[in-house]
Amino acid sequence: MNRSSNSVLVIDGSRIFRNYLSTHLSALGFKVFVCQDLAETKQTLEVRTDFVFVVSCYHLLDAEDGEVIDLLLENNLKVVVLTAKFEQETRQEFLKKGVLDYILKDSLSSVQYVIPFAKRIKNNQFHHALVVDDSAMMRRTICQLLESQYIRTIQACNGEEALQQLTNNPHISLIISDNYMPEMTGLEMIREIRRHSIHDDISILGLSGSDDKTMTAQYLKAGANDFLHKPFNQEELFCRVNQLLNMQEATKELFKLANQDALTGLWNRRYLFDTIGKNVADRCIAMLDIDFFKKVNDNYGHDGGDAALTHISGMLKAFFGDQIVARFGGEEFCIHYRGEFEKFCKQLERMRRCIEADHVEHQGQVIKYTISIGATSMEGTLGEQIKVADMRLYKAKESGRNQLINS
Ligand SMILES: [Mg+2]
User: Fold this and answer.
1) Which residues cross the membrane (predicted)?
2) Ligand 1 mean position to 178 CA, how many Å?
3) Distance, CA 210 to ligand 1 centroid (Å)?
4) Alpha helices in 149-203 (DSSP H)
5) Which long-range contacts (CB under 8 A, 24 or more apart) does 1-4 make?
6) Could you tell me the distance, in angstroms and rounded to a whole number, from the CA of residue 177 to the centre of ligand 1?
7) Predicted confidence band at 144 (pLDDT cuts at 50, 70, 90)?
């Protein structure tokens, strides 16, 4: 298994299927390799085996009984099997062998299932799951299943330990938890997690082997997103997990759409005021804009103006990537900086000089521009600080532009 690879392998006797899958998988950003039979697959595997996953037909012209699947599994590859027949026995056999999933290949459209699956696998690489259960065997089983789909895992044997893990690992995006555990139950743990809004993004899947019919409701009321009865089969778990992660990603995407500037990808004014909150200690603010931006637009067209805006956004991300940078509208930007004012000003000055020395290439033309900056570290509300920074920005304009005013 190779997380850094971006390659997938498609094995199918039909050229139409191969082309169809290649086109769609390439569109997702995968580098697609194709083989039409077992012989070609053997050749390919001699050269490379670092595929994120393989989509392979069960029956090939030179291997009618699934020999290719065995070959792929021997090479420790993650395989999605395309099969023309669905039989309970075949299904069990596949899953027992360690196949990721199987798809009934009854028409071209049925293969459309592969695309969301591929998307899921690609995105899973960014997720970390915390698996909480007092049974070590159960933890191991769930972790193995999740890892087979590239989700990284962390374990905890009770609610208390899980809360500790959550503090230590802020990137956890999914929690799968049992209820009955010593020290702290799953329900108690979930209630504690949901008390803090910083954990709102985390999806929680409750598990329980209890016969208690009210368990589902108890979990959901405590703040879990979904619930699964033990024992469960692997497909059931994957369906739930996939659904939770899909939903989580869609919510994030919506948040971005509402709070980010479409052209530059920077935060917008709404985000700064609504999400960053009112009073933050040791906060510095800088307001800056492009000098004579109207001239850039007049001379190079709005495309040229957009190129300059994209360029300055790249600079802002490069110099202040660990801070909050927002496009306020037009050619005006705001940097919300946590730290020492002196350091902040030095960094602003470095960026100003860098922009002055740099240029933007746009449709064969060279665009050069400079920026003016006003900065403050005064105490006050965000609105008050922005007002002061804005006044200093105005002063910078008055004093000849292309400079930083910080007092
Ligand atoms: Mg238990």
Assistant:
1) none
2) 6
3) 9
4) 159-168, 186-194
5) 1/76, 1/78, 1/150, 2/50, 2/51, 2/52, 3/125, 3/150
6) 9
7) very high
Q: Which residues contact 229 (CB under 8 A, 6 or more apart)?
A: 207, 208, 209
pLDDT at 277: 62
Going by their DSSP bridges, the two strands 360-362 and 365-367 should be labelled as antiparallel
Q: Say which residue the tokens 């039909």 belong to.
A: 14
CATH class (in words) of the domain with range 267-405: alpha beta
1 pLDDT band, cuts 50/70/90, is very low
Question: What is the reported pTM?
Answer: 0.74
Topology annotation, domain 7-121: Rossmann fold (3.40.50)
Q: Which positions ≥6 away from 407 have C-beta within 8 Å? A: 392
In degrees rounded to 5, what are phi and psi of residue 234? -60, -35
> Residue 27 and residue 272: Cα distance in Å, rounded?
34
> Could you report the per-residue pLDDT of 327-343, keeping only the tens digit for each?
988 899 999 999 999 99
Name every residue whose Cβ is closer than 8 Å to that of residue 22 and which is 6 or more positions away in sequence.
10, 32, 34
pLDDT digits (tens, 9 = 90+) for 32-48: 999 999 999 999 999 99
C-alpha of residue 193 to centroid of ligand 1, in Å: 19
The closest alpha carbon to 60, from 52, 69, 51, belongs to 69
Domain 126-255 CATH (choose: 3.40.50.10800, 3.40.50.300, 3.40.50.2300, 2.30.30.40): 3.40.50.2300
Ligand 1 centre and the CA of 226: distance in Å? 18
* Residue that the structure tokens 């997690």 belong to: 193
The pLDDT value recorded for residue 235 is 84
CA of 198 to the centre of ligand 1 (A): 27
What distance in angstroms lies between residue 93's CA and the mean position of ligand 1's atoms?
30
